[in-house]
Amino acid sequence: xxxxxxxxxxxxxxxxxxxxxxxxxxxxxxxxxxxxxxxxxxxxxxxxxxxxxxxxxxxxxxxxxxxxxxxxxxxxxxxxxxxxxxxxxxxxxxxxxxxxxxxxxxxxxxxxxxxxxxxxxxxxxxxxxxxxxxxxxxxxxxxxxxxxxxxxxxxxxxxxxxxxxxxxxxxxxxxxxxxxxxxxxxxxxxxxxxxxxxxxxxxxxxxxxxxxxxxxxxxxxxxxxxxxxxxxxxxxxxxxxxxxxxxxxxxxxxxxxxxxxxxxxxxxxxxxxxxxxxxxxxxxxxxxxxxxxxxxxxxxxxxxxxx
Length: 307
Ligand code: FDA
Hints:
Radius of gyration: 18 Å
Distance between the termini: 23 Å
Shape: globular
Strand order of the largest sheet: 3-2-1-8-7-6-5-4
Bound molecules: dihydroflavine-adenine dinucleotide
Helix content: 40-55%
Low-confidence stretches: none
CATH class of the largest domain: Alpha Beta
CATH topology of the largest domain: TIM Barrel
Structural class: alpha/beta
Number of helices: 13
């Protein structure tokens, strides 16, 4: 019930001001965000990769309101690429980008986002790493998949994200399950209407399994983005039955969520990539994490009222 309210709040400037100013917010944010600065994200990268985990870095900044902010996002990712090249981790440390940060929601946003993200994808390829395009709300899916298609003509390793809560996603999985394609499957984190998305969590889970079957039976490289123990177990079982080796798919989880499970999967010989967000614009990301899990919200509210 509270999820949609929090997701609506994630778009409210007034609530953003209240939440950002509350002193108790910071320790909660620190659980999910590696830091505000690039140097802090690199420290997190070193800590995680030294324990056998892989990473995908997200420079937070989805709320750009003009072209100069979109250029700042591009430049932040170019600086990130340079820092990752210096770490010498290759594709063990890749990047996730939200095209809204590159101007997708501005007038002429499709072309603008493509123009701004292309140099980042080029720089990533030169540094021996890859970029995955995060998926945002349903109104952006066609544009994001079209930009993915453009980028993949030159950089076939560019990754896609699909969200099982959308009715369209099984078809998208079929279209994206070809050779060389890297696809992260997630349940979906936005507040979507019943006209385009399953509203019942069990339906979303069932759709996740159907999508998983399509991707696991395909020729591409599935990336399973979920903390759900059932989805992890089903993915392992499917991989086993379909004869996929452990380096022919990977698990992905968010920074700060189920870290013991992340390490357990690595110890079992699985590839596990941690999604590491950093930057000052953490509000939308933080509110989506609260919306996903009542326990996180309850903890946060108790801290707010000082109990
Ligand atoms: P779900 O929220 O359904 O929870 C199922 C179970 O998982 C819980 O019952 C519990 O057992 C366990 N669990 C979940 N959270 C936990 C926690 N905090 N602590 C302990 N246990 C927990 N979304 C999107 O729309 N676009 C995107 O591009 C991405 N990208 C992305 C990347 C990666 C690497 C991940 C892991 C996720 C995303 N997401 C995303 C978010 C995704 O859509 C989804 O909102 C969250 O992953 C939550 O769904 P789950 O499948 O994890 O489980």
